[in-house]
Specification:
The strands form six sheets. A seven-stranded mixed beta sheet has the order 1-2-3-4-5-7-10. A six-stranded mixed beta sheet has the order 11-16-15-14-12-13, sandwiched between helices. Strands 9-8-6-17 form a four-stranded mixed beta sheet, with no helix packed on it. It is globular and about 80 Å long. The chain has four domains: about 290 residues, TIM Barrel (Alpha-Beta Barrel), CATH 3.20.20; about 200 residues, Glycoside hydrolase family 3 C-terminal domain (Rossmann fold, 3-Layer(aba) Sandwich); about 55 residues, no CATH class; about 120 residues, Immunoglobulins (Immunoglobulin-like, Sandwich). With about 725 residues, the protein is an alpha/beta fold. About 30% of the residues lie in helices and about 20% in strands. The chain binds beta-D-glucopyranose (BGC).
C-alpha cells in the first residue's frame, strides 16, 4: 500500500513537471501563459470563453482555474451592480461610487496629467468592485451637436481626443484594469444606432474617425475595444471583417480582444469570421428575448461550435479568438499586479473636483461680473438662483453611463454654503424623471407656474444665477436617441430672456455634453458651461464662480451661431440623420472647426475657446526641425492680476495641394502650470513629422507633402498669437 502511494505521488510529480502549469505562473511571460492554457483546453471550453455568461461577465475555465472576466460600464465611474441575468439593480448597499466628470469635461481641461489621474482613480474603483474590464472611455467624433451620447466622448477633434485618451488608458491598465475603448467606429449618432449604415470617404475615415482609436492602440496599447452597433460598408461593425481583421488587427497589429456592444452581433457566420472575440448581449438568448440560461445560444456559443464541427470555419479562427481572450484574462483577472483599489476615497473626490474645475469653460464675462468674490458679492443683498439643474442629480439618466453615487453635491447646496442667506431659489421649469420623461409628457400648466414664480422672485433680486442646460432625460443627452432640437428644452430660452429683462446682472450656467442655441446671449452678463461634473459638481462650479479657481477650460467642440452652420446640415437629411438607414458624411474631413475656419463661417465660440479671470501674453513662437521632429516653443506670461493656467494650441497650415485641406488642424497643445501674475512659462511642443501625413485615397495610404508648413500658435483656433514656418521634405 505504502509502496503504491509512493509510486502514485512520484507519477503525479513527474506528470506535473512534464506539463508545468506555465499558465498559472504569474511570472511567466503572458504569451507563454496563453499558449500553455490554450493547449489544455477542449474545443467546447474555448468556445465558452467567447460569449457572455451573464449580463456583465464572460466565462473562464473553472476546470483549469482560469478566471472569468468581470465587466461594467463605464466610462465615468463604476455602474451600479445589476442582477446576474436582468437589467434590474441588484440592490447592493456597497456599490455607491464616485461619479467622475463626463469625458467631454475631461477633454475641456486640455490637461493630460488630469487625464492620467482620471484613469488611475476610476480604475481603482473598478478594481475594488472586482471588475477586470471597464466599458469605456469613448472617442467617437462629435460630428453633430444633436448626438445623444456626445457627453461620453471627447469632442470634435481626433488629435485632442486621442491625446487625452492615451494617458487615461495607460494609467487604468497600469492597475491591471482593461479599458474597453468605445464604440469602434462611426457611432456618431444615436438615431438608428442599431442599423444605420455609414458612408464615409476613406480619407475622412482615416484622418478623422479612426484616428483617435488608432492613437489609443498604438500609444496606449488598449487591451479591449468595443465594436459599434452601426454598419460600415453594409456590415455591422461588431463583426466587420475589413474593419476588425483588416484595419485593426492586421494593419495596426492590435493584439487585444474585440468585445461586441450589447446585442451588437447579429449573424453567426460574420461573428465567427469577422473579427469579434467576445459576444456580449442585452438579452439572455443573445438575440431578442429573455430566456433563463440561454447564453449558449449566442452566436459565438453553440452556433459557432456547430460551424467549427462542420468544418465551415477553421479551428485556427477559434484558437485566435480564444488566445485574445486568454491574453485579456492574464492581463487583468489573473495579473498579479492587479491593484486592490478603493472606492469613494477623498483622493478620488479630489481628482473629480480638479477635473471639473479645469473643465468648466467661461464663455462670457461682461463687466467682470465674475468672479463673485467676497468683496463683490457683499454688494448683492439677494442672489436668486433659478433652474432645475441647480438641484438635479446629473449623474442619473443618460443610459448605460448612469451612476449610483455616495456623494452628489448640487450647485444650490454649495452656493448656500458659500453665500448663506443671500441665496433664494426658484426652480423655473421642470423636466420629469431622468431618462424616461420626454418633453411632450410634461404638464404645461406646471411649467407656466414655475416660470411665473421665478419671474416674480426675480423682481426682488440683485443678481440672478440661472443654472440649467441639458440633462440626461430621453432625447437630451441620453443613449439610444438624439436631441430633437438645437434649442435648450423646457422653455429655458424664454425664461432666460425674460429674467434678463428684469435683472441685467445675470449669469447663466449650463450643463450638457453638447453646444446649443443661445438667442439670449447678448442680454446676459456671464456664461459658464460645465458639461457634467460628477460627484463634486457644486463644489467645482462654485469654486470657479467665486474665484477660488481661475477658469482654464477650453472648448473641445465648436459652438455655432445657429444650427444651420454645422457642416453637414447644408446636405440635408442624407447627411444627418440619414434616409432609409443610410447616412452620408458629405462634409468629408471638414468636421467641426475644420469647416468653420476653412469656409469662413463665424462660430459663436470657436474650438479651443475659453476665458479666464486673468490675461496672458504670448511671445513670438519658434520652431526647429531636429531629425524627425519639429519642436515648437512659445513663452506664455500671465499679464493679469490673479494666478491662472493657459493652454497654447498649435494649428498647422499645410502646403497647398490639389486636394482641399482644412486651413488649420490641431497638431499639438500644452497647458502651463498655475502661473502667478507676472510669471512666465515656456511651453515646448514636439510634433513628429509623421503627424503631418495626410491620407491619399488613390494610394490608399499616408503621405507627407513636401513644402512649407505654417505652425499657428494660439489661444484658440481663431485667436492665433504668432506663426512660424518650417520647410518639410
Ligand atoms: C451601450 C454600451 C454599453 C452597453 C452595456 C450598450 O447599449 O451602447 O456603451 O457599454 O450597452 O451597458
Amino acid at each position: 500500500m505504502k509502496k503504491n502511494l509512493f509510486f502514485a505521488s512520484l507519477f503525479t510529480l513527474t506528470a506535473m513537471t512534464a506539463t508545468a502549469q506555465v499558465y498559472l505562473d504569474p511570472n511567466a511571460p503572458i504569451e507563454e501563459r496563453v499558449k500553455d492554457a490554450l493547449s489544455r483546453m477542449t474545443t467546447h471550453e474555448k468556445v465558452q470563453i467567447l460569449h457572455a455568461q451573464s449580463k456583465f461577465t464572460s466565462a473562464g475555465v473553472p476546470r483549469l482555474g482560469i478566471r472569468q472576466l468581470n465587466m461594467d460600464d463605464g466610462p465615468h465611474g463604476v455602474r451600479e451592480e445589476l442582477e446576474w441575468n436582468t437589467w434590474n439593480p441588484a440592490q447592493w448597499t456597497n456599490d455607491y461610487i464616485v461619479a467622475f466628470p463626463s469625458l467631454t469635461c475631461l477633454a475641456s481641461t486640455w490637461n493630460t496629467e488630469l487625464s492620467s489621474a482620471y484613469g488611475n482613480a476610476v480604475s481603482e474603483e473598478f478594481a475594488f468592485r472586482g471588475k477586470d474590464i471597464m466599458l469605456g472611455p469613448g472617442v467617437n467624433i462629435q460630428r453633430t451637436p444633436l448626438n445623444g451620447r456626445a457627453f461620453e466622448y471627447m469632442g470634435e477633434d481626433p488629435f485632442l481626443a486621442g491625446e487625452m485618451v492615451v494617458p487615461y488608458i495607460k494609467s487604468a491598465q497600469e492597475n491591471a484594469v482593461a479599458c474597453c475603448l468605445k464604440h469602434f467606429v462611426l457611432n456618431d449618432q444615436e438615431t438608428d444606432r442599431f442599423g444605420i449604415n455609414v458612408n464615409v470617404s476613406e480619407r475622412a475615415m482615416n484622418e478623422i474617425y479612426l484616428a483617435p482609436f488608432r492613437r489609443a492602440v498604438e500609444k496606449a496599447h488598449v487591451w479591449t475595444i468595443m465594436g459599434s452597433y452601426n454598419k460600415w460598408k453594409g456590415v455591422h461593425c461588431c463583426h466587420n471583417d475589413e474593419l476588425l481583421n483588416g484595419i485593426l488587427k492586421r494593419d495596426w497589429k492590435w493584439d487585444g480582444a474585440l468585445v461586441s456592444d450589447w446585442g451588437g452581433a447579429v449573424d453567426t457566420y460574420e461573428a465567427a469570421t469577422g473579427g469579434l472575440d467576445i459576444e456580449m448581449g442585452t438579452y439572455t438568448d443573445g438575440k431578442t428575448t429573455e430566456s433563463k440560461f440561454g447564453y449558449e445560444m449566442y452566436h459565438l456559443g453553440n452556433p459557432f461550435e456547430q460551424l467549427l464541427k462542420e468544418g465551415k470555419v477553421p479551428m485556427e479562427v477559434l484558437d485566435e479568438k480564444a488566445s485574445r481572450v486568454l491574453r485579456t484574462i492574464f492581463r487583468t483577472a489573473m495579473n498579479p499586479k492587479k491593484v486592490i483599489g478603493n472606492q469613494c476615497s477623498e483622493a478620488h473626490y479630489d481628482v473629480c473636483r480638479q477635473i471639473g474645475e479645469e473643465g468648466i469653460v467661461l464663455l462670457k464675462n461682461d463687466r467682470n461680473i465674475l468672479p463673485l468674490n467676497p468683496a463683490k458679492y457683499k454688494k448683492y443683498s439677494q442672489i436668486l438662483v433659478v433652474g432645475e439643474n441647480a438641484t438635479r442629480s446629473l449623474t442619473k439618466g443618460g443610459g448605460s453611463s448612469e451612476l449610483k453615487t455616495l456623494r452628489d453635491i448640487s450647485p444650490l447646496e454649495e452656493l448656500q454654503r458659500n453665500y448663506e442667506q443671500m441665496i433664494m431659489y426658484a426652480q423655473g421649469y421642470y423636466s420629469g424623471r431622468a431618462m424616461y420623461d420626454h418633453v411632450d409628457r410634461l404638464d404645461a400648466h406646471k411649467q407656466d407656474s414655475l416660470k411665473a414664480e421665478a419671474l416674480e422672485m426675480a423682481k426682488g433680486a440683485d443678481l440672478i444665477i440661472f443654472i440649467g442646460g441639458l440633462n440626461k432625460n430621453t432625447r437630451q443627452d441620453c443613449e439610444n436617441g438624439d436631441r430633437e432640437s438645437y434649442d435648450l428644452p423646457y422653455g429655458q430660452n424664454e425664461l432666460i430672456s425674460e429674467l434678463a429683462k428684469i435683472q441685467k446682472n445675470i449669469v447663466v450656467v449650463t450643463f450638457g455634453g453638447n453646444p446649443y442655441n443661445m438667442p439670449w446671449l447678448k442680454d446676459v452678463a456671464g456664461l459658464v458651461h460645465c458639461w457634467y461634473l460628477g460627484s463634486e459638481s457644486g463644489k467645482a462650479l462654485v469654486n470657479v464662480l467665486n474665484g477660488t479657481v481661475c477658469p482654464s477650460g477650453k472648448l473641445p467642440v465648436t459652438f455655432a451661431q445657429k444650427y444651420e452652420d454645422y457642416p453637414y446640415v447644408q446636405y440635408g437629411k442624407e447627411a444627418y440623420p440619414g434616409v432609409d438607414r443610410e447616412v452620408h458624411y458629405k462634409e468629408d474631413i471638414f468636421v467641426g472647426y475644420r469647416h468653420f475656419s476653412t469656409n469662413n463661417v463665424k462660430p459663436l465660440f470657436p474650438f479651443g475657446y475659453g476665458l479666464s479671470y486673468t490675461t496672458f501674453a504670448y511671445n513670438k513662437p519658434t520652431a526647429q526641425k531636429t531629425g524627425n521632429n519639429i519642436n515648437v516653443s512659445v513663452t506664455v506670461t500671465n499679464t493679469g492680476k490673479v494666478a491662472g493656467k493657459e493652454t497654447a494650441q498649435v494649428y498647422v497650415t499645410m502646403p497647398q495641394t490639389t486636394t482641399p485641406r482644412p486651413v488649420k488642424e490641431l497638431k499639438a497643445f500644452a497647458k502651463t502650470r498655475l502661473l502667478e501674475p507676472g510669471e512666465s512659462e515656456t511651453l515646448n511642443m514636439t510634433i513628429p513629422v509623421d503627424e503631418l501625413a495626410v491620407y491619399q485615397e488613390e494610394e490608399r495610404g499616408w503621405d507627407i507633402i513636401d513644402g512649407t508648413y505654417t505652425f499657428n500658435v494660439g489661444a484658440n483656433v481663431n485667436d492665433i498669437k504668432g506663426k512660424v514656418e518650417v520647410e518639410v521634405k
